């Protein structure tokens, strides 16, 4: 996000047509510039204004306006507010959305999405592609940065298609497929373009779907094999010769079928969107994914403190459990309750010294060290990392894990980004991993039985949990905190 400055088409606080007040520039490229603006005639609603110079050699806003107008009423289309032109620039005003998928993927800990997030997002993108095809247009630049999540509470789980500057009408006025050109020229983005685009062939509906396929692979793998290849033709050759088994290593087998089906299609063919949708839904069913799980970026704890943000977590399989955990944390903090519980460390767990190296306890030290220990992780060069919030999170995770019957995947990786004293220059990362032992149903049953026996004989119950944990050490929740450390 950048602020307006000299040399840009519009300036901050400039008012267009007595309605749109420019706030700041939020993007730009070869097509022109994008600004966040305020609708003065609609209660100050925040909108996006796309602008191109009237002197630009290649103008694309006319196509954008035509496509967006026809898409109105479609689920994955931005709302069209208006358009206009003067002697200096052309503009298009539409609803303002949240972060695009490219940024969200790059911000994730491994630059990839969980299977749950990738496939559910993929389904929405598939539907968005079907919507633009249904009005007779191809997008021809399907890529993560051209899809954004909604900004409001009502739309934050929805994906919106952006940027129709390279769109092309594939139907004529009679609703017939236009004859393909012998040489069409390359259109799209090299990383995600279909092989036919690399060969300068006329692109069809299947080519938008090939781009979706490459997006799904990148979402799951974190990158594509040709990411660092600069030559467009070489990328095309790699894509054409790539063995699907190699490309899809570790991916659901349904993606292999997805690609094989696309290979059967040619320019005039209408894809079976339903077949492809069922293909992706089979992944959801086979892996037990819930359609209302939070997306990877939705699990955050921004309310816990001004300097701490949790995001990028792989979603849990129990959304209500996660939500309740978060609510209890916030509620306890607001009430001023002590949420700084110690971190539970198993006897076999490693700890860290102040340099970041692992300390392996000897058998005697492991036996003598306290059962509960709070980590004070220090880096002398950058100062201390405050663990107050981490302790609060850990206390609730431990409580949740203790009440769960052997479900080892309740919680996955959590990520905390913290800036110290509002310093903005990145200095490095610190990673700390904790393991929380789980109570299995067998352990809980044994513990309850011991309590009943103790009450009957009026004796103190043995610590069944502690005893049984020695034989159930493999059942743990592993939580990794990644700290972004900043220096002046």
Automatic annotation (TrEMBL):
Molecular function per GO: ATP binding; protein serine/threonine kinase activity
SMART domains xrefs: S_TKc
SUPFAM superfamilies per record: Protein kinase-like (PK-like)
InterPro entries per record: CK1_Ser-Thr_kinase, Kinase-like_dom_sf, Prot_kinase_dom, Protein_kinase_ATP_BS, TTBK_Asator-like_STKc
Annotated segments matching region Disordered: 346-371, 441-468
Keywords for this protein: ATP-binding, Kinase, Nucleotide-binding, Serine/threonine-protein kinase, Transferase
Chain intervals with Basic and acidic residues compositional bias: 352-371, 442-451
PANTHER family in alphabetical order: CASEIN KINASE-RELATED
Similarity section: Belongs to the protein kinase superfamily. CK1 Ser/Thr protein kinase family.
UniProt-recorded name of the protein: Protein kinase domain-containing protein
Source organism of this protein record: Onchocerca flexuosa
């Amino acid at each position: 996000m950048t602020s307006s400055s000299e040399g840009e088409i519009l300036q901050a606080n400039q008012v267009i047509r007595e309605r749109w007040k420019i706030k700041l520039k939020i993007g730009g490229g070869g097509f022109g510039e994008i600004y966040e603006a305020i609708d003065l005639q609609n209660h100050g609603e925040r909108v996006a204004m796309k602008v191109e110079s009237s002197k630009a050699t290649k103008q694309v806003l006319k196509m954008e306006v035509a496509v967006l107008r026809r898409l109105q009423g479609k689920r994955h289309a931005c709302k069209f507010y208006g358009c206009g032109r003067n002697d200096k620039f052309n503009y298009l005003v539409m609803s303002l959305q949240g972060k695009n998928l490219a940024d969200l993927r790059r911000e994730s800990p491994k630059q990839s999405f969980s299977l749950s997030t990738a496939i559910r997002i993929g389904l929405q993108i598939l539907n968005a592609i079907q919507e633009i095809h249904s009005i007779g247009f191809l997008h021809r630049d399907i890529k993560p940065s051209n899809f954004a999540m909604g900004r409001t509470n009502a739309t934050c789980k929805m994906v919106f298609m952006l940027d129709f500057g390279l769109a092309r009408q594939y139907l004529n006025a009679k609703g017939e497929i236009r004859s393909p050109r012998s040489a069409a020229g390359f259109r799209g983005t090299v990383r995600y373009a279909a092989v036919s685009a690399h060969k300068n062939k006329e692109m069809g509906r299947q080519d938008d779907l090939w781009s979706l396929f490459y997006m799904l692979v990148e979402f799951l793998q974190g990158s594509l094999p040709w990411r660092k290849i600069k030559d467009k033709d070489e990328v095309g050759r790699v894509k054409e010769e790539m063995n699907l088994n190699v490309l899809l290593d570790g991916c659901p087998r349904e993606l292999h079928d997805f690609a094989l089906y696309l290979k059967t299609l040619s320019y005039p063919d209408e894809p079976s969107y339903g077949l492809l949708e069922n293909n992706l839904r089979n992944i959801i069913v086979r892996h037990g994914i819930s359609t209302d799980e939070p997306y990877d970026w939705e699990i955050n704890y921004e309310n816990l403190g001004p300097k701490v943000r949790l995001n990028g977590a792989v979603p849990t399989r129990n959304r209500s459990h996660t939500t309740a955990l978060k609510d209890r944390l916030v509620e306890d903090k607001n009430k001023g309750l002590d949420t700084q519980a110690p971190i539970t460390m198993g006897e076999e767990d490693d700890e860290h010294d102040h340099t970041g190296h692992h300390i392996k306890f000897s058998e005697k030290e492991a036996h003598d060290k306290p059962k509960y220990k709070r980590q004070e992780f220090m880096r002398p060069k950058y100062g201390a990392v405050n663990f107050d919030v981490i302790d609060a999170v850990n206390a609730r995770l431990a409580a949740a894990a203790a009440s769960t019957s052997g479900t080892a995947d309740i919680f996955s990786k959590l990520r905390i980004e913290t800036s110290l004293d509002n310093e903005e220059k990145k200095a490095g990362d610190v990673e700390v991993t904790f393991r929380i032992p789980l109570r299995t149903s067998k352990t809980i049953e044994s513990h309850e039985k011991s309590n009943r026996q103790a009450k009957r004989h009026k004796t103190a119950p043995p610590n069944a949990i502690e005893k049984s944990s020695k034989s159930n050490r493999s059942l743990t929740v592993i939580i990794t905190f990644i700290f972004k450390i900043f220096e002046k």
